[in-house]
Amino acid sequence: MTTFIEECEEFTAEVWAAYKNHPWIEALAGGILTVAQFSFFQIDDGAHVAEFNRALALGIAKAPVGHPWARAAAHVLDDMSTSAELSEKQSLLDELGVERRIEHSRWKCSPAREGYVNHLVRTAYEGSLGDIATSLYPCSLFTVVIGERFRNTDMSHSAFKRWTDMYTRPTRNEMREQHFALIEATAATADTEARDRMRQIYRRSLEHQVRVFDAAWVMDQQWPGSADNGTAP
Prior knowledge:
Shape: globular
Helix content: over 70%
Largest sheet: none
């Protein structure tokens, strides 16, 4: 029997391939990703870390008391708070000699990244708990796209390896599994309109994920009227 996630994967096959095999990730695998490209992604990720956690918190508020998804989300927020995760990312830049600070302000991120975080937060405010899990699931697949792929891979910089290892942690894998379980449970009782909405939410999250990698690959930080607002490395 086909799962709902498998339906979503079929619906987004080309986008998923663009995500999993993005040139930024392939350059990381090939040892040719530059420090500037790596640093751009980490700096640009500051707002995403904060808003991802906001979406988790909103999901916890909507979840039934004692729901396993909510317990996993609370574990993530406890184990990897916004300040702790940003400090860890900052230590990567410090190790690489990059004299830039990672901030959680949405005003400091690229247009692509702001689009992504706006999508996550809007879904968290407007959607059901199942919608929230669906929007967050593609990001949780970093445990596969980054964590599993690079688990036993040597990197050109130790900071790069420390970053990929962040996505092998049990807390992140537990959250991915709970997203999956909640999505499947929600879809199983949802009507056609709700299932279609979930598919579109899933697709849009994947599309945003590709866009933020696009921005990091070419280091595109431009907003209208400004060549550089201070985030690009």
